[in-house]
């Protein structure tokens, strides 16, 4: 596949991702990483040999504490993102994540042609490039959000019996609803692997589109800015 070269003066630097969205993204990435690492240790703790007495070694308790504290941060971050889905600009709004229009469905077909079938649409590619997330990515984030809910409900459901605080107790019905701790723990574990798979695909596609489109895809979630064609800006009411 060949990239399409376009004069740089045809593009304008536009703020797409607001600061709360960028903070959510990186805090979410950090939480998922910490939760996955500590979660795997909790699920299958290694035998660490030490000359100290067991009562003097509290490494596993520290791992669990880090896992639980990060889970609270993950929950708070998700609540903040839900709030910003109603408060933020068009590109962070919940409506931008649902392919309800004909244009959105055409964009999904475009993404399938480019990302999956690796076809080159040549000059037509710019007519279908999304300013924010493409609708295939947006829909995958909806699924990811539902997956995060599974993680939150199953995780706090498993933690409820060990906690004296009211917040985890709100989820103490989850294991009983799912038929016990075994299935609850299995769903929690499977969701972790799905997060990992999603992350690998997500990172690959970000760099792929950065190479293909050359619009600052990789740096956009740091600076908030993308490079958008001027003719596209004239046709987009959201910029």
Label this structure with key terms.
10 helices, 239 residues, Fumarate Reductase Cytochrome B subunit, 4% strand, two-stranded antiparallel ribbon, elongated
CATH class identity? Mainly Alpha
Extended strand count: 2
Poorly predicted ranges: none
User: What is the share of helical residues?
Assistant: 55-70%
Oligomerization state = single chain
State the CATH architecture.
Up-down Bundle
Q: Domain count, please report it.
A: 1
Query: What is the CATH H-level superfamily?
Result: Transmembrane di-heme cytochromes, Chain C
Helical stretch tally: 10
Termini distance? Answer: 30 Å
Record the SSE blueprint.
Blueprint: E1 11-15, H1 19-43, H2 59-87, H3 102-116, H4 125-128, H5 135-159, H6 166-169, H7 174-178, H8 181-213, H9 217-223, E2 225-229, H10 230-235
Antiparallel strand pairs: 1-2
Helix pairs in contact: 1-2, 1-8, 2-5, 5-8
């Amino acid at each position: 596949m060949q990239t399409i070269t376009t004069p740089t003066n045809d593009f304008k630097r536009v703020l797409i991702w607001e600061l709360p969205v960028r903070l959510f993204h990186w805090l979410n990435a950090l939480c998922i990483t910490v939760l996955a690492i500590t979660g795997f240790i909790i699920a299958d703790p290694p035998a660490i040999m030490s000359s100290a007495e067991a009562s003097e070694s509290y490494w596993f308790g520290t791992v669990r504490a880090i896992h639980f504290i990060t889970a609270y941060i993950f929950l708070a971050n998700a609540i903040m993102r839900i709030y910003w889905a109603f408060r933020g600009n068009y590109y962070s709004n919940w409506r931008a994540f649902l392919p309800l229009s004909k244009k959105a469905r055409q964009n999904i077909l475009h993404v399938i042609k480019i990302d999956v079938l690796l076809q080159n649409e040549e000059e037509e590619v710019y007519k279908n490039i999304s300013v924010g997330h493409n609708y295939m990515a947006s829909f995958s984030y909806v699924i990811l959000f539902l997956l995060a809910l599974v993680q939150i409900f199953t995780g706090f459901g498993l933690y409820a019996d060990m906690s004296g605080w009211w917040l985890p107790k709100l989820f103490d019905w989850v294991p009983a609803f799912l038929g016990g701790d075994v299935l609850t723990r299995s769903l929690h574990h499977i969701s972790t692997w799905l997060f990992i798979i999603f992350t690998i695909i997500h990172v690959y596609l970000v760099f792929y589109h950065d190479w293909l489109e050359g619009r600052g895809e990789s740096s956009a979630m740091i600076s908030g800015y993308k490079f958008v064609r001027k003719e596209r800006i004239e046709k987009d009411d959201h910029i």
